[in-house]
Amino acid sequence: MISLQLIAVVVLCSLCQVNGYSGIYGNECPVELAQRTSAACQQKRYRQLLANKQLYQLAPFIKGEPIRLLNMTIEKQLAVFSKHPFEISMPEKTYKVSPDFVKIYAFFRKAQAAFGDPYFKNPSDEEPFQDIIKYWMRDKVFAEQRLAGVNPMTLVRVTTDRDKVGIKWTELRKR
Length: 175
Known about the structure:
The chain is mostly helical. 44% of the residues lie in helices and 2% in strands. The protein has helices at 4-19, 39-55, 74-81, 85-89, 99-114, 139-147, 169-174, and strands spanning 158-159, 167-168. The model has no long low-confidence stretch (mean pLDDT 70). Keywords: Signal. Residues 1-20 form the signal peptide.
């Protein structure tokens, strides 16, 4: 007598073989070790890796573009990033700092200071720095955080004049 569970296992296994990706996951590949990944998932991941290598590579800047970290025009950036459903809706949204967040942030900062103020220093607490909760979108605040070592996201490689990548030393000295 064949049980219902055995029939369900056979059906799920056949789905996995027919789909090639993983059957019950549809068009998505499950998170698993490379040894256990199906050939279709390996090919899909390899294609994604090649596409990402084309997007994110060390290359000379495009002159006149406002975002100098990517080697692509604004139109190409919008085309690339608009493929993801989360990223397509982000430009339409604005960010508002919640009053609850400000209270929680202040509470944890106060608690952190009580446990050993000399060991927990934040650049925004010191005199020359502005409050990052109120003025987080201003360029000056971003620069202060970057110089303090808190925000290293846009560090740019300084190179000699012979190199094609990064900011040239002579160009940096002019600033």
